[in-house]
Structure formats: C-alpha cells, structure tokens
Amino acid sequence: MNIEEINIKERNIECSQERQHISEGMADYASIAPAPTTVKQTRVSVQLLKDLMLKHIYDASVVSVKGLAERMALTGSVVDELSHLLRDEALVELSSSLNGDGTLSFRLTERGRFSARDANDRSGYLGPAPVALEHYKEISAHYSLSKHSVTQEGLTALFENFIIEDLLLDQLGAAFNSRKAIFIYGSAGTGKTYTIGKMMALFQDACLVPHALSIKDTIVSVFDPQIHVPKILPNTGGSLLYNRAHDARYVPCQRPIVITGGELTADLLEVQFDSQSKTSQAPLQLKANNGIFFIDDIGRQSISPAVIFNRWIVPMEEARDFLSLANGQHFEVPFDVQLVFSSNLNPLDLADEAALRRIGFKIKFEHIKPKAYREIWGQYMENKGIVFCEPLLDYVLNELHFREGVGLLPCHPRDLIHMALTQATYKGEPGLVTKERLYWAWQNYFVRLEQSTNEVIIQ
Predict the structure, then answer these.
(1) What is the radius of gyration, based on Cα positions, of the chain?
(2) 221 with 281: CB under 8 angstroms?
(3) Any residues with CB less than 8 A from the CB of 278 and at least 6 apart, and which?
(4) β-strand 250-254 against 206-210: which pairing, if any?
(5) What pTM, to 2 d.p., does this model score?
C-alpha cells in the first residue's frame, strides 16, 4: 500500500467517524424534539399554519410539497395534510406543470391569493413554522444550565495559557455554579469582558433554538444569525429537510452568548414589534436563553442602572420572565440564563444595597501584580517572535509604571509592545523593540494633561 492509498484510507476513517458523530448527535435531537408527522403534533394553531403556507405559496408563485417542507421546516406528511385542507377550501390547486424532480406543485386560486394577502396584512412573518410556547418550555428545561457544573479542573484547563490569579478563577467557578447573577467590576483593561466570554467555552454541548414561537396566533422570531451559531449538519441533498428525524423548527446551535453594552435600551428587553413589516422579535434575554447574557459597561447606557437592575428582579428569583405583545397580551417564558453585569464604576454608585443583595456574586478584577505582568509580557513577546529582554521589562516597570504611579493592567504589555512595533516598522526596523520606542509608545498610549504648573498628569 503506497502513501497516497494510506492517506485516502485515513481520510475515509476520519470521515466515517465524523458521520457517526453527527448521526449520533442528530439521533439525540430526534429523541428530544421528534419531528411532528401530523398537524396536531405540531401543537400550533391549524389556522396559523394554513395562513403561513398560503403566504409561502404566494411568495413562490408555484411550489411543491417538498419545497414547502423546506420553507416551513415541516415534514412532508404535515405539509401534505395542510395542502389537503387548503384544497378543500378552494384556496390552492394543483399546478399543471411538474417540477424538475417530477413532483406536483401547488399554486393559489383567486380566493387563495385574497386570503394570502389578508394573512400578510395581519402578520408579515415569512419563515419556518413556529413552535408552541409550551413545547419550547419543555425543550428549554432539557437544556437547562442547572444540569452543568463548573469544576476547578475544567476551569484550570480552560485558562491554561491565560495569566489569571487562582483566587479570581475560584471565585468565577463558584459563581457560575450558583446560577445566580454575577456582578464583576474593576478598572478598564483588567480583562473582565475577555474572561467572561471565555467562560462560555465550558459548555460545549449544543442546544435547540426555535426559529420562532407561536403565542396563540402571534409569531415571535427567536433565532438570530447574529447571535446563534448553528451546528453543522450533514448535507443530504434536501431529503433531511423533507423528512428529517428531529423537529426542523428548531436549530441545533452552540449555547448562545449575548453581549450588550452602552447601546442597550429598555425596548431591547421587551418584544419588539415592527409596524411596517408587522413582525415581532424576541428580546435579548430570550435569545440568550440556555446561555449567557452579558451586560457590559453598566452606567454607560441611556437608561439608568436602577432600571436595568430592577428589570431582572422577578426573572432572577423565579427563573421565568413575563413579556407582552403589541396587542397587550401577556405571556411567560423561561429564564434559564447566566446573567452577568460588568462595570468600570463603583457598584455602590450604580445601585443601592438592596439591589446588589439580589445579585449572588460581586467579583472585583484588580490590578495585577508584577509577577503576572512579567508572565504576560514574556508570553506576548514570544508570540511576536521577539527575544525576551529583562532590562526592557525592568525599564517599563520601574521607570514608567512605578515612577508615574500607573497601576499594572493585563492589557498594558500587549498594547505597549504593539505600539512600539508599529514605530519599528515605520522606521524600517521591524521587530526591533527598544527603551526609546517603549517610551514613545507610553507617551502615545496615555492621556496627558498639562496643568498650569507644567506638571504632566497621566490618566
């Protein structure tokens, strides 16, 4: 057997193993959310499904059962049942032409076009069929974060190449296990946002995210491609969508991570109704369900910190949230979210003690010690392919940081070295870091205000 034959054999084994892994994952999804094979099993209003099908046929002009199954994320048997109902009402009829695959297609009758336009006037949603709210609650409970535990071993392995104090790591691990809200605070540049984002890697399993929810006859979109990262499923040439084992109205995704900062407004925490398109979008916390909702830069939003904290009193205590539709209808959704607040400001300036008491953990990110600074400096120099020079680091610590009274932050080594390297490239000496270039970087990095006494202040 030659080398090429060996490589082909190894690739075939790898592909076979990957197919087996994907197949096992799909089987798991099928046991959790089996595909409905009848309209009744969808648990959604028959009229809502008929209206949605009419809109899809109106949009496509002519479409087959298979095409409708792909558009609506339903099995062929469900689509076939709906099509019979619409034909009985003289809303659709068989097209005289065949598709490329030899299947029959449907088109709207004149009466059907009128009904489709009427359905569009009431709701502009055009996508996969929604899932019933009660069904989603069951699926959400299956993927609850409470079924996961963070271990010291797992957290240490995750941050193996990241310089962080053991005490801080232990605080974070315990905080995530509590499932209570977490408030992290400290100076800008202490690594708060990066650290929390990295924590989500502890949850490697996927969860099922619905394309949309049906609240009686109202459809609320949930799946958001800017937030949800789908797991890759095998390409089956469309047959998977036509008759797939798991309910295709759900998308297997990585657990969601929603990060919002100063742009957060109160309306983003409620169902958003677009009067132009007549569509409803789920709030951020619902899109983050079964994952992390990270609200960064508390105190920088247009709404007050008190409003932000008060919004979570009931969800934090009862693990459920209460929302309202544009028509005034109220409904309850699960709140299985690791809620994390972050701020560079003093927590006592943002909320009173009563509000802070409801938050389980308050974790401060401190300035780092010289030992950690040295480790980060050496790590970054190595990543850049630069030989570590002890005198250069001593100069930065003693002559710049300590003399100027500037605390040590984990972002400083990366930023100062990077700026020094930009000047080195500009001067035609790429990769050459000197004391002079580090001082130049220091001068450009910090805000310096001249007082009347000509004293220089570094902030």
Answers:
(1) 28
(2) yes
(3) 120, 121, 122, 123, 124, 125
(4) antiparallel
(5) 0.83
Whole-angstrom CA distances from 13 to 18, 19, 48, 232, 236 are: 9, 10, 46, 19, 20
Residue 142: both structure tokens together: 């299956």
pLDDT above 90 covers a percentage of the chain that reads: 67
Q: Does domain 370-458 have CATH number 1.10.8?
A: yes
Q: How far is CA 76 from CA 248, 361, 397, in A?
A: 12, 50, 69
Under 8 Å between Cβ of 46 and 78: no
Pairing of strands 456-458, 448-450: antiparallel
The label of the residue with tokens 């929603």 reads 258
The maximal CA–CA distance of the chain, rounded, in angstroms, is: 90
**Residue bearing tokens 């789920």:** 282
Provide the CA 429 distance to its chain's centre, in angstroms. Answer: 42
Burial class (CB within 10 angstroms; exposed 0-12, middle 13-18, buried 19+) of 292: buried
Q: Record the tokens describing residue 361, joined without a space.
A: 């953990």
Let me know if the fold of 136-205+255-365 is the same as that of 370-458: no
Strands lying side by side in the sheet with 92-98: 63-64, 104-108, 92-98
The domain limits of the chain are: 136-205+255-365, 370-458
CATH superfamily of 136-205+255-365: P-loop containing nucleotide triphosphate hydrolases (3.40.50.300)
> 98: Cβ–Cβ under 8 A, 6 or more apart, which residues?
104, 105
Angstrom distance (rounded) from CA 36 to CA 78: 7
Look up tokens 């001067």; give the residue.
Answer: 427
Indicate the burial class of 49 (C-beta count within 10 angstroms; 0-12, 13-18, 19 or more). buried
- Parallel/antiparallel/unpaired status of strands 320-324 and 330-334: antiparallel
User: Per-residue pLDDT tens for 365-420?
Assistant: 999 999 999 999 999 999 999 999 999 999 999 999 999 999 999 999 999 999 99
Pairwise CA distance, residues 207 & 226, whole Å: 16
The three-class DSSP label of residue 292 is strand
Q: What is the residue-wise DSSP string for 49-72?
A: HHHHHHHHHHHHSSEEHHHHHHHH
